[in-house]
Amino acid sequence: MMRKLRTFLVAFLVTGTMVFAQPRHKDGNKEKRNNYTPEQIATLQTKRLTLALDLSDKQAEQFMSLHLEHAKLREKQHTLRKSREEEDRTKLTEEERYAMQNARLDQRIAFQKEVKKILSEEQFENWKKIRRHHGSKRHKMLREGERHSR
Question: What is the pLDDT of residue 141?
Fold first, then answer.
């Protein structure tokens, strides 16, 4: 009985030590993130959407240009944010945060309007379902990441 208990404790300690020995990154697994170009990102997004919604060639071309435009915009915003962080290391004010969120929501609204022009009614409804599911997965992963980093 004591031997089994001792073996269990040793296994528990070894496993616990191995879990805490894993490197933790502030931004998640940075090394796993891919540094794709905006063109590569747009191509991958378009192909995923083509598979999910059975897009025609014309729709795929329209999405390619739309995705490319937004990938370039995101890359530009990412570069600006990184340079700002490196320069002054100060947190955003409430007003700056509000302006950023407002601009981001305006971009999402414009993107959705463009998508609605490209897709049929049925495809658009499926696209909205996919977006909702994708967003809930992302939020779930973020919450889990916060829980593990505490």
Answer: 56
